[in-house]
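Re: the 109-residue chain
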Amino acid sequence: MASEILGVLTRSDGLGRRSHTPRPVTAEPASLEVALLRRGLAGGGDHLERCGRCARTLLLGERVYEYGSGALRCELCRERERQAPADSHTVHGPAFGHSIRVIDRRSRA
């Protein structure tokens, strides 16, 4: 937001035409912007699953494979393992299970 160049429209003549003159950008971002950025970064990765081999943060919807030792592997690192995975599941976001669920309450006739 602060790094964008904002412009001001000014009248260049009496005919109603406008010219675009750039306004200087402040070097210091707004305190609200900084506070929101810090809040988003602090503890943001606590709930995310990571691959045990490459330490890559797994994407939502990606399959993650769990081995008997408890190690997690992503799709890319799974092929490097010698043993077969004991279990696999889909990576879900932090809102999984807390969102609205549609329940079919129609009577079955």
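DSSP finds two helices and five strands in the chain.
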